[in-house]
Design goal:
Helix 1 (10-21) crosses helix 2 (27-44). The chain has helices at residues 10-21, 27-44, 97-103, 153-158, 166-180, 186-204, and strands spanning 51-58, 62-64, 69-72, 78-83, 86-91, 93-94, 109-110, 115-119, 124-128, 130-131, 135-143. Mean pLDDT is 88; it is low at 216-228. By secondary structure, the protein is an alpha+beta fold.
Length: 228
């Protein structure tokens, strides 16, 4: 999905918001707050423009995940594209860590992996069986843009956030400034922000940009045990 035009730098976003609030002394704190606002937006919602694909080689029982990896894009995110130089399209099924550990007791090598899981602690993808020779693969995943260092103020102020709806970001920093100053308008602005975000969510996700199947809540539902 193309990003909307008219994007603003972080410095401009903060400047416009604080001028509107009438408190330009909050610039340093607003830089920190804007980082957190963006982080929450990236973590809480699946945005089409944060989906990426990386091509790499799997030559062992694990592979390093990209530095901006947040989570797989969907259940068919990892697939092998070449085995022994022959082009294929082989989906590697993602399973939970418990299932992955259970299937480790069977055959340990094959020409291509069948299952994989994410080791979030060590930023690794774990595959099974281990390929006897390196295979080419592609991983589609949701990215998490890195924070911009608030200490390097010139670079920070010049940076353009990945989140393209900058009027929303101006309003979010404005609401923060009102809340900081204990202005009674802060709650009203917060309500407006929630409505604005709902509208953005409605227009930023084209019909085919999201999975058509709604996942079950993992804390309430689990995949039943299977025998491999």
């Amino acid at each position: 999905m193309p990003l909307p035009t008219g994007r603003l730098s972080r410095g401009t976003i903060i400047s416009e918001a604080l001028k509107k609030a009438g408190n330009t002394k909050l610039t340093a704190a607003a830089r920190i707050k804007l980082n957190r606002i963006l982080e929450n937006l990236y973590l809480e919602y699946d945005w089409p423009w944060l989906t990426a694909a990386g091509a790499f080689s799997i030559g062992g029982a694990s592979f390093a995940l990209p530095g901006d990896f947040l989570k797989p894009a969907d259940d068919a995110a990892l697939y092998v594209t070449s085995v022994n130089g022959v082009a294929v399209r082989h989906e590697v099924r993602e399973v939970d860590r418990e299932t992955y550990e259970r299937v480790l007791t069977t055959d340990t090598t094959a020409d291509r992996p069948t299952f994989w899981c994410v080791d979030y602690t060590n930023s690794l993808g774990l595959v099974y069986p281990t390929p006897v020779a390196p295979v080419s693969a592609t991983l589609r995943y949701k990215t998490l843009p890195a924070d911009v260092d608030v200490i390097q103020t010139a670079a920070y102020d010049a940076d353009i956030p990945t989140f393209p709806y900058h009027n929303y970001l101006i309003d979010a920093v404005y609401q923060y400034a009102l809340e900081h100053d204990e202005d009674l308008r802060a709650n009203e602005e917060l309500a407006k922000l929630k409505l604005s975000l709902a509208q953005i969510r409605g227009t930023s996700n084209p019909l085919r940009s999201q999975p058509q199947t709604i996942p079950l809540e993992p804390s309430r539902f689990r995949t039943p045990p299977r025998r491999w």
